[in-house]
Every structure is written in structure tokens, then in C-alpha cells.
TrEMBL record, chains A, B:
Annotated DNA-binding residue span(s): 37-56
Pfam assignment, any one: TetR_N
Name this polypeptide is given: TetR family transcriptional regulator
Domain of life the protein comes from: Bacteria
Length: 254, 254
DNA sequence: ACCTGAACACCGTTCAAGT
DNA sequence: ACCTGAACACCGTTCAAGT
């Protein structure tokens, strides 16, 4: 501790996969994926670009590792194991079961569980905007190759505890995951164009004004909803979309 | 075919923004965004890389132009103008109005209109997988700067003709657009990993088998829905998700 | 076992020079 | 007005050489 007067010695601070991934996440958060460079990374780690390749195979593996690290954290906050485990035989009715020995959190209704996981992902993507594209690309990988399939599993378990026919599980879970990734990614993109220092209320007001000034013939709808964007809460809006989908689960088609 | 003996003459085939964008779309479709290169593009157009910059400012403008061209086609097939125009005063009730002089297609219910636009986008993204990421990034742009806001408008108009409170329009439209882009992008990514020559049934069977072989403790849900992926139709599945959201629109929360 | 740093084969983009 | 092609400042990645 007190010996930390000199800058870190190589021996005390050797390169490691963890340090590399950590620095990568920092660069990603600060500058976005386009600016994550092996040379920039090497400089930050006080080494040469070649050294990184001893610990990481290539850039895409580095991106995967960064994604895994961040998402694993996010999913750890939300409970990975839901109230009701999937029983492979029959559609599960969502009669609240006896409290299970939940690992991290108190037991919740599946609906609240979905909200919790969704919000955890929303916040993670908000804090790390580059996550959205990364996760979307990873969803088609086989489980075990990345965290993205874990998200699918995590949402799906809660869906299986909903009172919905088993035949709808896949559709519902897919819809939820797509919505979550899409909406969270959008929010992150907005935040990015906004910039870190800017005023949110002012930004919303500006967009609302711009929407209201659109050509009535070309953009009647966008004009009509301009008011709604002016004073909406991002997370509330996001959760409203989740509820919309969940409401559709048991509803009969009109 | 048989006429393709000489290479095209310069004077008869001058460079133009249109030709460049067309060639870019071809490269994008064939090799993906990573392989769209000004040098490859120049070679395909029998010119130097510098020449392209006379017609296009930079790569991101080229990508935008390619996206615009492809999406404009897709939205032209689906009706851009819906049965019921947005009236800014009151929530519109979806009593079928008198047939309007629809520009391209016969009048439809808003629900069918949404399905049509969604399916057109699904097919476009299926044919041009690089579209998904491009559109997601463009959604946060102001209308007029890209086609993405037109998609929002196009879906939104139909939403406004649904029997839903006006206060929900923004949420519903956002949810739909996010789902459409997310699900279509996912499908395109799957098709990409599948490859052009492979057998779809065999591919689905392989994934289903892989899912069924997962650890029951870690992936109970994914295992449980493995059957459902085996013989599902992509477009049907996609539309089921749309219907799910639409069903949620008027449903009361449970 | 781990790190260095030069080198290779690329990129997007610019720009003097041509027609 | 439009095109050429060399050049600049980057990239990811490799690899002989060091410790």
C-alpha cells in the first residue's frame, strides 16, 4: 500500500487477461468500439501491441470477453434463477410457489423477475452503449460461447413461470429479448448523441420541437407524438414496453 | 451473359452516385459490411478509390445511401400511407373508414397494415443482413437525415388507427419498431451463420439437438423450447411476435 | 513463460496532377 | 467537371528476438 510511490513495476503489475479486458472496457466506455485499438490499449497498459496477443487471440475475442464481463455483472444483480424452475412436463401455472432458497434476491413474481432482468440490462447498456450491437451479434451463437444465450435463458425461465401456454414460450421470450436489446440500444444511442455533459430536458425539448416542425403531410404521426417525448422517463417508457408485451401474452386476439 | 466479352467503356458507363451505391449494395450483400472497401468498390467499378470521393463524401454517407436505397424499395411495397390518417385531436377509433385513394395498395385494417410493413422490413433485412445494424444506428437521427425515422412514422400511422389511447402511441410504436429490427436482424444473423448453400431443416435440427444436450441445471428453459425451434417457420414466428405486441395494446394488465 | 517492437498487408481519405 | 494514383496516417496481426 504505502510502497506504491513509484509507478507500477512490471513484475508487480504483469499483463493479464483480466487487466487487458478491464482496460478494453474502459476504452470502449470512453470512446466507443471504433476507437478500441490494440495500439491504444497497449499504450494504456504501458506495453507493446504484440504483448496483448499473448493473452487474447484477437480483437473479436477481446470484444467477447469485454461483453461477458460486463453482462455477467448485470445479470448477477438481477436473479439468474427465478421463483419457479422450468418443469419440462406441463405448462406451469403461476401460482406463487413456496419461497425457494433464492441465491441472491428475494423471490418475485415472474413478471417482476422479467422487469428486474430487463432493467438490469437496460442500465448496463446505458452505461456501456457498445454492448447493444455486441449482444445482438452474439445472440445467434451457441450457448456456452457467450453470455447472450444466458440472457435468453434468464428471461425464458421467468416466461415459463407465466401463465402462458408452453407453445408460446419461444415466441414470447424472443420478443422480449429483441425488445430489450432494441430499446436499450436505442436509449444508449440517444444518450451518446446527447453527450455526457448536456442537459436532458433541454435535449428532449429540442427534439420535440423539431418533430413538431416536421411536414404535416410526411410526418403526421411523428408530429402527433412529439408531445409524448418531451417529458417521458426513459426507464419508465422502457418498462411500459415490457408490460405491453406481457399484457399480450395472455390476451386473446381481437 | 454472352455479350460480356469486353469490359465496359468509360464514356458510356460514367461513374455516378447511383452506380456507386448499387455496387456498394452488391458488395454488402455478398460479403457484409466488413468487406465493403473503397478499393474493392473501385475495382468493381473499374476506377481508382479517389474517384468515388467525387460522388460520395465518405464511407458513412455511402452506407447511408445504400440503406436508403434498399429500405425505400421495401417501404414502397408496403403502403406508406395507411387507411386512417392521423387526426391530431382525438384518439382514432378503428371503425373501418371509407376506402381512401391509397397510393399503391388496397386499403387494409391497421393491424394488417402493420403486419405488411413489418414483413416487408423482415424480408428486406433477410435479403440484406447488413441493414439491421445500419437501421438501428440511424433510428436516433432526425427525420430527413435517413430512412429510419420513416419506418417509425410508417408503423406509427397504423398504430394511431388502432383502438388505443393516444398516450400509448409512442410506446407501442417504439416497441414494434424495436421488435421488428431486433427479430429481423436476428433472423438475418442466423441465415448468415447458416450460409447460402446449407439445408435449413438440417440446420434447425442440429441447433435443436444442441439445445437439448445442454446442462439441465444451467439451461432448463432453452432445453424446454428446443422442440419449438425444430419446425418453426421464420416469418410465421416473426408475425406471432407482432401479434403478441398488438394483443397487448388493448389488454388490461393482469 | 512472457514481452518487445519492427514489419506486413491492409484501411479510409486526401490531393496534386491529369483529361 | 471528373478521374487517376501515389501518398499519409492509420489498422489488426505476426514474429523474430529478447528476458
Amino acid at each position: 500500500m504505502a510502497t506504491r510511490t513509484r509507478r507500477p513495476e512490471r513484475r508487480e503489475n504483469p499483463l493479464s487477461r483480466e487487466r487487458i479486458v478491464g482496460a478494453a472496457v474502459e476504452l470502449l466506455d470512453a470512446d466507443g468500439e471504433g476507437r478500441l485499438t490494440f495500439r491504444a490499449l497497449a499504450e494504456r497498459l504501458a506495453t507493446g501491441p504484440g504483448a496483448i496477443y499473448w493473452h487474447v487471440a484477437n480483437k473479436s475475442e477481446l470484444l467477447d470477453a469485454a461483453t461477458d464481463a460486463v453482462v455477467a455483472d448485470a445479470l448477477a444483480v438481477a436473479p439468474a434463477t427465478p421463483v419457479t424452475p422450468v418443469t419440462s412436463a406441463m405448462p406451469v401455472t403461476s401460482v406463487a410457489p413456496a419461497m425457494s432458497a433464492a441465491s441472491t434476491t428475494t423471490a418475485e413474481s415472474p413478471r417482476d423477475g422479467i422487469r428486474a432482468v430487463a432493467l438490469a440490462l437496460f442500465d448496463a447498456i446505458d452505461a456501456h452503449p457498445w454492448l447493444a450491437a455486441q449482444l445482438a451479434a452474439q445472440l445467434s451463437r451457441s450457448p456456452g460461447q457467450s453470455v447472450a444465450p444466458r440472457i435468453f435463458e434468464s428471461i425464458g425461465r421467468q416466461v415459463s413461470a407465466l401463465e402462458a401456454p408452453k407453445s408460446s414460450w419461444f415466441t414470447v421470450t424472443s420478443a422480449l429479448v429483441h425488445y430489450i436489446l432494441g430499446a436499450a440500444g436505442q436509449n444508449a444511442a440517444n444518450g451518446r448523441t446527447l453527450g455526457p455533459g448536456a442537459d436532458r430536458g433541454e435535449f428532449l425539448d429540442t427534439t420535440a420541437r423539431a418533430w413538431e416542425a416536421l411536414d404535416p403531410d410526411d410526418y403526421p404521426f411523428t408530429r402527433a407524438v412529439a408531445v409524448q417525448i418531451r417529458d417521458h422517463d426513459d426507464r419508465e417508457q422502457f418498462l411500459a414496453g415490457i408490460d405491453l408485451i406481457l399484457n399480450g401474452v395472455a390476451a386473446k386476439p381481437s
